[in-house]
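Quiz preparation item.
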């Protein structure tokens, strides 16, 4: 019995077949091999593997038949809503496309560890902690590459050499002996259920991620929360004063609590795995569509910010660059924004999206590098720290509120991280640890940056760092490389959702390229029309973060749980909703007013 299906995650593999466990699990359990019919759903194959157990019922041990019947009955009960969701509810590509932002593991580290036994010995402590980044010492000594989810499926000869005897169960059911693996057929290994489910033959999403340990989940959470928002925290102090820093722990505490509310919503039903699923459970199909549109707009807006950030950073490195041709003049910022968008475009066109999984864990590294460079310039290169600034500026406080709120905009991915954990009971501790770390880091960087540059602090503190210092150059180029690599990962879910909604005859690679090209060009147009990095970020934080991180989790929780919620928690959720609505209205009004004024 597959562990994901017993816990209500039988539709994890709706879009993929590049996973050797999901492909061969049915065959090893005694089910029929995959059908070559492109119209058959991969979830149907998985369910058949659960229901059909030739020769395995008697070998499962006496006294366990009733338990297995109960579990199988529950799986059959879950099948109907899952199939209904697959056939009619948009979007279907959300789960796996959002996984690319955090929980898809990059095999690069595993390859390095397997190639060097000495590095494997150094990582023994991480192995004991359950980190899925490293291979075990025995596998490394044998020279094999037992990747958790390799980008390429193993060859037939490698699969034929595997001799599984008993699959160890991680649930309460006792293990049962498995039937001999049937003869492998090459055509069955080439089927792509992603094409069947999305009614398309050109999309190749990466295989679903393996179950993550707590340490891996912490890295995923930090990777989501540690983004480009850290660059504007110092500007928030300049705008609203030192007391505005109190908003960081306040927003962090509220966001952490609402993240736990999302967990409770997922636990309420085995068919809920993602944020749109929560919206559907709370408010029906209308809620699912509304939540999905809000999340996709947030991702699209992040891509706009990436273009603005690339233009600002490169123009600071090459300030004299410009283009004048046939009466058209492009400043340094505009020139680099257009140039980088054209350079990004091929990565958005990628047909095999599993290649993007290599870029999934770069956010934490980039953030740590920029922080180290900031302290290096302040302490080691003589810039120093100069106390200045006001205590509080109420007129500019809404801008700082939006900037700080943007720093905690990770709720769209939290349900995916929770659904991918091995030990789900550890999620509250993982979430609490992540929010404590990022709150401390954001506060420290905000104070350090403002102490270094004072009232001259720009929208990105990297623009204030003296260019003659090596750490400044490293920090600038890290802020260039990070959005360049993250753009395609962020835009892909938006593109897939649009392609999924196209008529069936238009779901082909050419139409997909056109959709992605239009999306990229539109982000350039928006970025050049509103070249205000900090103000646009404040607007995003005021609108989308307040919706996704504060308002919607509380509203969905109250709708799903209803009478089960204690009175004090109802009052708390209503208070958070009201705070979010007030902050969204005031923050968006102030940001738009300043953008119109050109400040």
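Solution:
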């Amino acid at each position: 019995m597959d562990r994901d299906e017993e816990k209500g995650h039988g539709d994890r593999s709706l879009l993929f077949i590049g996973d050797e466990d999901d492909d061969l699990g049915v065959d090893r359990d005694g089910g029929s091999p995959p059908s070559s019919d492109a119209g058959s759903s991969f979830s149907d194959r998985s369910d058949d593997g659960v229901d059909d157990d030739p020769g395995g019922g008697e070998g499962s041990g006496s006294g366990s038949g009733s338990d297995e019947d109960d579990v199988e009955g529950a799986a059959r009960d879950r099948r109907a809503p899952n199939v209904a969701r697959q056939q009619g509810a948009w979007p279907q590509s959300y789960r796996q496309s959002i996984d690319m932002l955090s929980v898809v593991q990059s095999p690069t580290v595993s390859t390095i560890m397997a190639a060097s036994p000495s590095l494997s010995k150094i990582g023994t402590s991480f192995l004991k902690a359950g980190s899925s980044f490293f291979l075990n010492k025995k596998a490394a000594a044998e020279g094999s590459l037992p990747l958790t989810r390799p980008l390429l499926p193993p060859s037939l000869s490698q699969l034929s050499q595997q001799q599984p005897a008993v699959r160890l169960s991680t649930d309460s059911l006792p293990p049962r002996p498995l039937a001999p693996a049937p003869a492998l057929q090459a055509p069955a290994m080439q089927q792509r259920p992603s094409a069947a489910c999305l009614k398309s033959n050109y999309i190749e999403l990466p295989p679903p991620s393996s179950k993550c340990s707590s340490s891996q989940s912490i890295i995923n959470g930090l990777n989501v929360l540690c983004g480009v928002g850290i660059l504007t925290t110092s500007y928030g102090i300049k705008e609203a004063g030192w007391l505005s820093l109190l908003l960081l722990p306040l927003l962090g505490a509220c966001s952490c609590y609402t993240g736990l509310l999302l967990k409770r919503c997922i636990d309420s039903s085995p068919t809920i795995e993602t944020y749109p699923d929560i919206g559907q459970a709370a408010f029906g199909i209308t809620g699912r569509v509304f939540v999905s549109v809000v999340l996709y707009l947030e991702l699209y807006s992040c891509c706009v910010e990436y273009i603005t950030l690339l233009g600002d950073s490169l123009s600071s490195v090459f300030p004299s660059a410009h283009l004048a041709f046939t009466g058209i003049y492009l400043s340094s910022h505009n020139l680099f924004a257009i140039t980088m968008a054209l350079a990004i475009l091929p990565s958005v066109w990628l047909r095999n999206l599993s290649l993007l999984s290599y870029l999934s864990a770069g956010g934490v590294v980039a953030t740590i590098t920029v922080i180290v460079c900031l302290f290096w310039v302040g302490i080691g290169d003589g810039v120093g720290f100069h106390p200045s600034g006001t205590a509080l500026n109420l007129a500019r406080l809404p801008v700082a509120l939006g900037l700080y709120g943007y720093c905690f905009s990770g709720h769209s991915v939290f349900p995916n991280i929770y659904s991918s954990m091995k030990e789900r009971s550890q999620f509250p501790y993982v979430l609490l640890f992540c929010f404590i770390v990022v709150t401390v880091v954001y506060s420290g960087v905000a104070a350090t940056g403002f102490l270094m540059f004072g009232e001259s602090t720009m929208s990105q503190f990297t623009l204030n760092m003296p260019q003659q210092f090596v750490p400044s150059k490293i920090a600038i180029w890290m802020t260039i490389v990070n959005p360049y690599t993250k753009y395609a990962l962020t835009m892909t879910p938006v593109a897939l959702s649009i392609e999924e909604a196209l008529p069936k005859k238009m779901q082909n690679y050419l139409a997909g390229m056109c959709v992605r090209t239009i999306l990229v060009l539109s982000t350039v147009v928006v970025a050049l029309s509103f070249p205000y990095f900090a103000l646009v970020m404040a607007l995003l934080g005021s609108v989308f973060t307040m919706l996704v991180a504060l308002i919607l989790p509380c509203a969905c929780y109250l709708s799903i749980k209803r009478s089960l919620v204690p009175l004090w928690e109802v009052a708390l959720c209503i208070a958070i909703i009201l705070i979010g609505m007030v902050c969204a209205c005031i923050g968006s009004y102030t940001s738009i007013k300043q953008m119109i004024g050109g400040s």
